[in-house]
Each structure stands twice: as structure tokens, then as C-alpha cells.
Amino acid sequence: MNVLKVALLILRKDFAIELKSYEIVSTTLFFSVACVAIFSFAFVKEGQAPVDVSAGILWIAIAFSGTLALGRTFERERYGETLKALLLAPAPRPAIYLGKLLGIVTLLFATEVVVVPMVAFLFDAPFFTKPLLLVALLGLGTIGYAAVGTLFAAMLVRARTRDVMLPILLYPITIPVIIAGVRGTSALLATPVDEPVAMLWIGMLSFFDVVFVTISLWTFEPLMTE
Amino acid sequence: MTFDFDRVELTDLSRHFGRRKAVSRVTLALQAGDILGLLGPNGAGKSTLLGMLATLVTPTSGTISYGGRSASRGGADVRGRIGVLAHELHLYPELTARQNLAFFARLHGLAEEPLVSTALESASLGDRGEDQVASFSRGMRQRLALERTLLHGPRLVLLDEPFTGLDDRAVRIVADRIRRIARDGAIVVLATHDLDVADGLITRMAVVRSGRLMADGDAGTGIRQQYRALVETA
Fold first, then answer.
1. In this structure, is residue B222 part of a structural domain?
2. How far is CA B227 from CA B30, B189, B204, in A?
3. Burial class of A196 by CB neighbour count within 10 A (0 to 12, 13 to 18, 19+)
């Protein structure tokens, strides 16, 4: 069995489970929408949104809801210890990591489809001036964040303090991704759009993605074996 | 060509967790057709030993050879010939019995049918295939989990307390199933506290205490007496 085939099989299985409960999709979406709504209540005064906060709010909503989704995804594999059954499959073990990563990335993309227009509307932010650059920033940022998060969530699946430990481990390491995402998005919101700066941060995000995904694929098997 | 083996050898196998020696210098050889009863009190190291045989726990020292190949060298090939039924049943409660078996069949690169239908019949769940596993009793889950374990025809079958939650009839069905797979050439390792069920089922017994192998030999009848003599008086 090749890596991609097993990864897609795990992704399909996770979707089949999610379609029965909508547990992760609904909580992640609700949390991200609530997060943006609370920021808008706090910052928007008399219909006037402050300048330069929308990029930060967007990435905070993505990061926080991503943490929630990461925890829940592996909670499912903890019940019944199905993660062990996956580790016993006659396939390269990094395929499990890849399958879970694809699931988280897809879920976060779905969240972004809702959250980006919401932030754009509530904070009067011109997100769609350069839509391709925005998609590149969000896509690469999401992959980088999810790459580290998936590895940590898998590592912590047997830890009693996993809910506390996940954000403690995840946020410091993904700071470069969050900074690149916020700075790149801010460059897209500038008037006129600061395309070279946005491209610079897209390059940085691509670099982080390559580093994080490679390290995660490399370390997944030794970290998952007791 | 698909990798296979008919002998598993554990040589000087140890696993330490910090200063605690969960398994200490165990040497054991298993042949196709063996039903080895891994007996011992709680915390004796049985589950750690099964974990190492399953390639899920890395030994601190010593080796396990699957027909001459180590787990690290064999990788996916070795794992493809191992089936594990642990205390936690490795089933997704949100999915139906059929979806669970179909997922694990595909994970092993096998065609779903007729494998899944046959497995459901073997688990006496032919008419419950479309029901969510969450709605099953412990006994039904246990039977389904056993079929999930055997779905890909593993050579090495590792069973950790497979009779938990089963009524007498189900115990007999599972015991017969274990005898059948051993007769077909599987190596079965059965960790259990239930000496009454083990008596007459296992062909060999290995008694483990404090991580050490106290005895290994053919299991005759009267396992309880042998076990008591070895563990309770030691």
C-alpha cells in the first residue's frame, strides 16, 4: 500500500465519521464565528472598524479553531485505541500522519470559507483585492500550522494533560507561521496592495511548510512507537 | 512475493520504563500452530510483551525475529502478518460493523467483498452489519473485533484478554475460532487471566511474573495447579 492511498483512506474514514455527527465541523465553525463576532463587538465602534486589526483577528480565529479541531480529531482515535490499529497497518506509518493532516487542512479551509468573508464584512477589510495571493497565504499558512499541530496532537493522544499541553506546545512553535500569515495578509490589505511584501511572506510560509512537513513525516514513526 | 514466516523468536528481550523493568530478558520461540498462553498476575509484563511482538513497543534490548526478519527491517511486511486484539477493541463506534471491517480490509490492501460479509457471519453479526458499533453490547463488539483482527489472515495473532465480556456460548465460539486459526497455521499468543478457558485451549504456556519468564513449556491439563505452583508460591 502506498502512502497516498492509505492517507486518502484515513481521510475518507474520518469524513464518514464526521458525516454521522458533524461534531468537529460544527464546533470548529461555531468557535471561529464566535471568536470573530466577539472581536467585532470589542473593536467596531459606531460602525467604524479600526485599521490593521482584521489580519490579526482572522489568523487568531484560524489558529484557535484549529487547536480545537486538532484535539477532537485525535480524541476519536484515542477511544478504542484505534490509533494503534492504524499503526499496525502494513503501510508506511507517516501515511497516518498525512491522512490526519489532510483532514485538518480540509476542515480549516472550510472554516476559512466562512470566516474570511465574515471578517471582511464586519471589519470592512478589502481581502479580495488580490484573491490568488490571499488563497496562497491562507493555504500555506494553514498547512504549516496544521503540520505541526497534527504531529503534536498525535504525540499527546495518550497524555492525560493533552488538552492543556497542545496549545502550550503548538503556539510557540507555530509563531513564525502566524507572524508570516498576519504580515502577509496585512500587506494585502494595504492601500495600495503591497504585493512584493506579500510575496516575501508567501515565500517564507512555503519554506516553513517544507521544513515542518518534512520534520513531521520523519519523526512521526519514532514518536508514535512507545 | 508476500512476506510470511512460520516461526517467531524472542531473544533476551527487555523493555524498561525508566527504572521499572516491565519485561526482563525474555527468550522464547513460537512455531506455527502454537497457541501460547501468556499467563501472569496484573502488571507482570504480558501487555508490554504483546506490544513488542506487535511492533508497537520498541524493546530496550534484545531482538524479535519474525522468520529471520526483525520488525525494524521488516516494517510494513511484518505488520501485515500480525493481528492484534487488545483490551481496547480498535473499532470506530460511530461507524457500522460493515464500515469498520471494510476500512480495515482496505487498509490491508484487500478487496472488501466477500471478506467483510464472511467476517460478519463468523462474528454472528450478519444481520447487524449496517448498525453502528456504538449500539452493540460488549460481547458483540468483542466478536466483531476478533474478526477485524483475523480479517487479513495474520500469521501471528496476539490476543489480550479476548474473553472479556463474553457469555459462555460466545466464549466457546471464540475458543473454537482460535483453535481453527491455529490449526490453519497461525501462531496464537493469548494473554489471559481466565485459566479455566485457557485450560484445554492453549497448547503451550509461558508464565510471566515481574517481567521475567518463570516457565515455558507444553500445557497439559490442570493449568491452574501448574500456574499456582509457579506464581503463587514463588
1. yes
2. 20, 17, 12
3. exposed
d(CA B146, CA B206): 22
| A50 three-class SS | coil
Question: Is the pTM higher than 0.90?
Answer: no
Q: How far is CA A218 from CA A84, A94, A97, A146, B234, in A?
A: 19, 8, 10, 16, 46
Distance CA B204, CA A28 (A): 52
Q: How many domains does chain A have?
A: 1
Pick from A20, A21, A90: CB nearest B77: A90
Residue with cell 498576519: A182
For the segment B99-110, the average pLDDT, to the nearest whole number, is 92
A6 to B107: CB separation less than 8 angstroms, yes or no? yes
pLDDT number for residue B2: 76
Whole-angstrom distance, CA of residue B180 vs CA of residue B177: 5
In a domain, B57, yes or no: yes
State residue B231's pLDDT score: 66
Residue B66, phi-psi category: left (phi > 0), alpha (psi -120 to 50), beta (remainder): beta
Higher pLDDT, A113 or B18: A113
* Residue from A124, A140, A126, A132 nearest A59 by CA: A140
Q: Please check whether residue B98 is in contact with residue B116, taking contact to mean a CB–CB distance below 8 angstroms.
A: yes
Q: Which of residues 53-112 of A touch B (CB under 8 A)?
A: 76, 79-82, 84-92
- Domain of residue B30: give its range: 1-81+190-234
CA distance, residue A15 to nearest chain B CA (Å):
11
Instruction: Count how many domains chain B has.
Output: 1
Phi, psi of A208 (to 5 degrees): -60, -40
Cβ contact A13–B95 (<8 Å): yes
- Cα–Cα distance between A148 and A37 in angstroms, integer? 27
Domain holding A124, by residue range, is 3-224
Q: Are B161 and B178 within 8 A, CB to CB?
A: no
Q: Are B60 and B112 in contact (CB under 8 A)?
A: no
Rounded Cα distance, B157 and B181, in Å: 9
